[in-house]
Amino acid sequence: MSMRFEIRQAAPIDASAACALLRRSIEIGGKADHEGKPAVLEAWLGNKTSANVATWFASPSNFAVVAEGEDGSLLGLCLLTQAGKIALCYVLPEALRLGVGRALLDAAEQHARTWNIKKLHLYSPPSASAFFERQGYINAGKDTSCFGMESDLLWKSLEESCELAPGAARKRFCNCNG
């Protein structure tokens, strides 16, 4: 299945639709992570209000992007903080595995580079960790999220490396020794 979408910077006017997207993604897409733990789900959804999302989008210390479908509906969102944290990266369950999450994360990583951020980190529910690992994030192990769910702490360096993988060609303008 193919789905067309556009990645664009989020605006406070997107808050209501983004809030609905977050809640649906967590309730349905995150079911494996909160199933049987209503207190975890309630805590996870606790700050997902339209007013909070509008504040997050309007903050100059955040950069938020959304994936907008051809019909104008939001399919996903990603929020980066100036501290180098991917605070949100959610995709509607029906838009999973269509490149939406990867495109959102790429946009956030590109913006992080404009802020001279060298390393990103995030907390992921276990069900989504493999996605981030496929995008080059390293799983540093388990931690407990602020809402009481076991999560994986992941990080990624945004600095170009001069080290070569076996069989890889040396970069033409590499400044490393060797």
TrEMBL record:
Highest taxon above the source species: Bacteria
CDD domains (UniProt xref): NAT_SF (cd04301)
SUPFAM superfamilies associated with the record: Acyl-CoA N-acyltransferases (Nat)
Gene3D superfamilies from the UniProt entry: 3.40.630.30
Coiled coil: none
InterPro entries named in the record: Acyl_CoA_acyltransferase, Bact_Acetyltransf, GNAT_dom
A family per Pfam: Acetyltransf_10
Keywords, comma-separated and alphabetical: Acyltransferase, Transferase
Domain N-acetyltransferase: 5-159
UniProt-recorded name of the protein: GNAT family N-acetyltransferase
Originating organism: Massilia agri
